[in-house]
Amino acid sequence: MSRTDQVQAWLPKIAEAALAGDSKKLEIVLVKAIRALKSQSPETCKQLGALLAEHSTNPNGLRWKGSGPPPVDADEGFALVRSESTDNAPAPVMPPTIMKRVDQFVSERKGCKRLLEEGFLPPGSVLLTGAPGTGKTMLSRWMSQQLELPFVTLDLATSISSFLGKTGFNLRRTLDYARSRPCVLLLDEFDAIAKRRDDDSEVGELKRIVNVLLKELEDWPLQSVLIAATNHPELLDKAIERRFDIVIDIPLPGDDERVEILRQSGRQFSDQIPAELLNALAVGLEGTNGSELNSLMSAAVRQHLAGEQELVRSLIEEFQLRLSKRLSGRSLGVVLRSVQANAKGLYKVRDLAELFGKAPSTIQHHLKKEVQHG
């Protein structure tokens, strides 16, 4: 087929999508046309890709609907979404394997012009799974900051309980709002509506919403990013999960991540805590999520500032108050020896017994055992 014939074959499809005001279809048709014409018309395809990239990141580009103000519930008047600032959003502390995938997603989004010029669509949707407190929302906010896009969130669990019976309508209005402008939309507690359609316990409306979501994920525009977060991936409809460009399972923080989260949470005051002590506490905090770690360190700093007490003592008290019951025999010994070694003689066996809520004989036993096994 000649170059002219190929162009003529694509013109009706492009015109049809444009005249219908179907921006997503137009994006897909243009990408397919770029692929088909690339070998014979590289310069034309480069121009098409550049135009597509420009309009896909331009709020006045390929969007025919007026974006308007954030949607509100028609009866109650409350906002369906909330816009959050991403100024100074901290970098999430996660394993390198996780951050590598996140960085790749951000890089491909930022390099969408090059991808489109070659006939490839950039990724536009992410499913984040993981236990509560592992940083899914923090990661979403940081991605929004990196992409320089507004951050919009919808808590689906709250929405369901607030307006069951209108969920589908309000969800569609929220999605239309996010589609109408460049932004990152976070659907939090995603399992509240995206449950398996074979779950007999769910009402008919929620099953219909799953079908709405399937369609939305297929038609999601280039200019926006859709992130869904769930604590219960096993509840999700598998067809929904397959629609996401990438799925990232966020684990509980490991030893290194726990140390860094504690350090970040203490900000400038972390310099007052010996590194050996922080490392030892991180061992004892195995199984703790990032939110709990941040809460523990923040409470210790507040106690230190309000009571003019040494931060080391405040930190140990918070540690004992919240989490010492989780300690195994070996990890307790590690923590005790580190505390004793780094507290400049402040804590004797009796002091440690009081702090950790153990009998002095128990403290002495763990200290000796650690020496024997060290």
Principal-axis shape: elongated
| C-alpha termini separation | 77 Å
Count of DSSP H/I helices:
17
Low-confidence stretches: 59-66
Widest sheet: strand ordering: 1-3-4-5-2-6
Radius of gyration: 27 Å
Whole-number total of structural domains: 3
Under CATH, the homologous superfamily of the largest domain reads: P-loop containing nucleotide triphosphate hydrolases
Query: What fold name stands as the CATH topology of the largest domain?
Result: Rossmann fold
Q: What is the SS-derived class? A: alpha/beta
Number of strands: 6
How would you characterize the largest beta sheet? 6 strands, mixed
Mean pLDDT: 78
CATH class call of the largest domain: Alpha Beta
CATH architecture assignment name of the largest domain: 3-Layer(aba) Sandwich
In terms of DSSP E residues, the strand content is 5-15%
DSSP helix fraction: 55-70%
Note the run of SSEs as H and E: HHHEHHEHEHHEHEHEHHHHHHH
Give the helix/strand layout.
Elements: H1 3-19, H2 23-37, H3 42-56, E1 82-84, H4 96-110, H5 112-117, E2 125-130, H6 136-147, E3 151-155, H7 156-163, H8 167-179, E4 184-188, H9 204-218, E5 225-230, H10 238-243, E6 246-250, H11 255-266, H12 275-284, H13 290-307, H14 311-323, H15 329-342, H16 349-356, H17 360-373
Parallel strand pairs: 2-5, 2-6, 3-4, 4-5
Antiparallel strand pairs: 1-3
